[in-house]
Design goal:
By secondary structure, this protein is α/β, with parallel strands linked by helices. The protein has two domains: about 1-35 and about 210-390, Rossmann fold; about 55-180, Rossmann fold, CATH 3.40.50.10490. The chain is built from 16 helices and ten strands. The protein has a five-stranded mixed sheet with strand order 1-10-9-7-8, sandwiched between helices. A five-stranded parallel sheet has the order 3-2-4-5-6, with helices on both faces. Helix 11 (about 260-275) links the parallel strand 7 (about 250-255) and strand 8. The N and C termini lie far apart (about 55 Å).
Length: about 425
């Protein structure tokens, strides 16, 4: 994996090589704080130690209890779902059993998913760090009821991933369900390299050892220098550009299998770095598709964006058939891969020409090792950004407010949150 920072030098907003040297000194101090947090197992910082602590044998043992499932249902939300979905979408194969992620409580969507499932041959994996998540437990109860109605022993088809206490842990104990642990001190959005993300990958025979090895290689390269640590370089530059006006960070992979990675990044960045009026808004795009729907904004809109371009250096390819059609001769002898690479290079150059900062991230290939490293480097980048911004990276008070409001409404309770809902202003036009 490597980064090209050339297209943030001299843009507006932008940095200079001298600024990078100045950042390097600050990053060294932040690295020491991060390492101190890791050494003392402080909440959140332990995420960067997961390559050393994750128990893959335990994950494989839990998965081995379920023989040849024809479908897998993942019930979770946020970090309890997006990490697993990222690994599945990026690395899963055509012959793998379909994976259905239930991360919303839209009745139409849930009913549609249930109607597609071979319930008798479906494994259900329920993931909640707290074991209390309303959306997750509600969806699980619905799926469990569907299995009961079909006269299926749901206890033989359910795997639980949760913390040491909570409703979900109690349920697993009551029914002797196989259970894996969410690691202590690791917020959900940082948990992809634990049982939370790797278990579903193991069901699909994805090489989880290689995923963790890629992350471990990223961990081994952590240092106090942005010139030696790609993750730190990304986090430091994103923070510096944010201070200079790049308040929006567009994650734009040039590989459809990385589209869910963009969604994972969006949560990581948004939930971790938005505190006390500070933060950088993450957005997602997909190359080359969104060149035709969003690039106009990035080049000609407000100068408030950093665009992050991600691609694998190698990929499978398909030749473009020869054509005699007028005006298309330039495609003869080319492939879809070469066209996509040309689109990538053109987008990068067009952003630079329009004075828009961009960062190129290139991974070796779309394989388990490269993806594991990419995920680890982005987590390191996020944590470093939080250190430089002097914010509480691992909390999410705004999310908790919404959870309390939801529980209050369902319980018909009078709380500060429900009173706000009752008292909010309305202005209706019909």
């Amino acid at each position: 994996m490597h980064e090209d920072l050339g297209t943030v030098l001299g843009t507006t907003p932008g940095l200079s090589e001298h600024t990078l040297e100045q950042l390097n000194g600050v990053v060294g101090q932040a690295h020491e704080r991060i390492q101190h947090g890791r050494a003392n197992s402080e909440h959140g910082y332990t995420a960067l130690s997961l390559p050393d602590t994750v128990n893959l044998d335990q994950i494989r043992s839990a998965v081995s209890r379920f023989e040849s499932p024809q479908a897998i249902v993942v019930i979770g939300i946020g970090g309890s779902a997006l990490g697993a979905a990222t690994l599945v979408d990026a690395l899963g194969g055509e012959d793998d059993p379909p994976v259905h992620v239930l991360d919303n409580v839209d009745p139409d969507s849930i009913q549609s998913t249930l109607s597609q499932l071979p319930l008798q041959e479906t494994v259900v994996t329920v993931i909640s760090r707290s074991g209390q998540t309303a959306e997750t437990l509600s969806n699980f109860l619905v799926v469990r009821e569907a299995m009961k109605m079909a006269d299926i022993d749901w206890t033989q088809q359910t795997l639980v991933i949760t913390g040491e206490s909570g409703n979900l842990s109690d349920l697993a104990t009551q029914y002797s369900l196989p259970q894996l642990s969410v690691p202590d001190g690791v917020p959900g959005r940082f948990s992809v390299l634990s049982a939370v993300g790797l278990t579903i990958a193991a069901f699909l025979d994805i090489d989880v050892d290689a995923v963790v090895k890629g992350a471990a290689d990223g961990e081994a390269d952590l240092s106090g220098s942005i010139f030696e640590t790609p993750g730190y370089a990304y986090g430091a530059v994103a923070h510096a550009l944010n201070q200079r006006g790049a308040k929006i960070n567009v994650m734009m992979p040039y590989a459809e299998r990385l589209e869910t990675f963009g969604e994972w990044f969006r949560q990581l960045w948004a939930e971790s770095l938005a505190k006390d009026g500070v933060g950088q808004t993450p957005a997602t795009a997909l190359g080359a598709t969104d060149q035709h729907s969003q690039l106009q904004l990035y080049r000609a809109g407000p100068p408030d964006k950093l665009v992050t371009l991600v691609r694998p250096a190698t990929r499978d390819d398909i030749d473009i058939p020869e054509t005699a059609l007028a005006g298309l001769g330039y495609l003869n002898g080319e492939s879809l891969g070469s066209l996509l690479d040309a689109e990538f290079e053109a987008t990068e150059a067009s952003l630079f020409a329009a004075d828009v900062p961009a960062i190129r991230i290139e991974i070796d290939a779309l394989d388990p090792h490269s993806l594991g490293r990419l995920l680890y480097e982005m987590e390191a980048a996020c944590i470093l950004f939080g250190e430089l911004a002097n914010i509480s990276t691992f909390t999410q008070p705004a999310v908790e407010w919404g959870k309390r409001a939801t529980r209050g409404l369902l319980r018909d309770a009078s709380t500060a949150e429900t009173e706000t809902i009752t008292d909010k202003q309305t202005f209706i036009i019909e």
